[in-house]
Amino acid sequence: MKTTLDSDRDLSAQIASAIRDAIVSGQLIVDERLPSEAELADTFAVSRPTVREALKRLAAQSLIRTQRGASGGAFVNRLSYDETVGQQITTATLLLSMNEVDFETACEARFALEKACAPASARRRSADHLAAMRAEIHRQSQPGLSDEGFCASDVAFHRALVEGAGNPVLGWHLAGAIEGMQPLMNMITFSARDRARIVGLHDAIANALEARDAQGVQTGLDALEHETLRLAGQVRAARAARRR
């Protein structure tokens, strides 16, 4: 584990990075107890508050857990799927909301990933996945549904499509795109959205999935991507016109 620090950079961040690298490389294994704060302070030649801040960073990333008592301390955590999915969603949301990723780039990535799920979902989707998608299509068709409700239903529809692929690794990668980026895309485009058009595209995708037609699912997602980009362009044009 690297212990030499650059005094011109955040010391706690460097310590956290060094410990994280040791965990990723296998130098520190799951459930292993980390050295005490005092030992880490001596190792890195820093104060204990600096070490404490580094450990807080690692705990926030769910890489370590702390226990109290005589046998307590900081331990390498066993990551769960749910924990890492939550972090993926948060990161994707922040990247888009802070304009670190532009709308078109996010849209391209989000649909490319989902289209990659289409062949597996067409093979493996269950009746339950189809039922979940049909239920969301019905919900989206209700005239009294709020914009927030439509957005939540939109996310649930696409989540069911991805879960139908039966591949948790694909699901993990898509969590940020669907759970994080999709709501923000909806916030940008909702004012120009034709709900009937979206519902029709969702229906076409569900029909293709029911027929186990992977190409049909991808074609439906292509159309949905085109519609999303068209709506975003329409919203931008309207905003520019109001500023003139």
Can you walk me through this structure?
By secondary structure, the protein is mainly alpha-helical. The chain has 2 domains: 66 residues, Arc Repressor Mutant, subunit A (Orthogonal Bundle), CATH 1.10.10.10; 163 residues, Up-down Bundle (Four Helix Bundle (Hemerythrin (Met), subunit A)). Helix content is 71%, strand content 3%. The protein has 10 helices and 2 strands. A two-stranded antiparallel sheet has the order 1-2. Helix 2 crosses helix 3 and helix 9 packs antiparallel against helix 10. The mean pLDDT is 88.
Task: Give the SSE map.
Layout: H1 11-25, H2 37-44, H3 48-60, E1 64-67, E2 73-76, H4 81-97, H5 103-124, H6 127-140, H7 147-163, H8 168-189, H9 195-210, H10 214-243
Antiparallel strand pairs: 1-2
Summarize the structure.
It contains ten helices and two strands; from the N terminus they run H-H-H-E-E-H-H-H-H-H-H-H. The chain has helices at 11-25, 37-44, 48-60, 81-97, 103-124, 127-140, 147-163, 168-189, 195-210, 214-243; strands spanning 64-67, 73-76. The termini are far apart.
CATH superfamily caption of the largest domain: GntR ligand-binding domain-like
Largest sheet: 2 strands, antiparallel
Q: What structural class do you assign from the helix and strand content?
A: mainly alpha
Distance between the first and last residues' Cα: 58 Å
Tally of discrete structural domains: 2
How many individual β-strands?
Answer: 2
CATH topology of the largest domain: Four Helix Bundle (Hemerythrin (Met), subunit A)
Helical fraction: over 70%
Low-confidence segments: none
Strand content: under 5%
Question: Quick one: overall form?
Answer: elongated
Mean pLDDT value: 88
CATH class of the largest domain: Mainly Alpha
Strand order of the largest sheet: 1-2
Q: What is the gyration radius calculated from CA atoms?
A: 23 Å
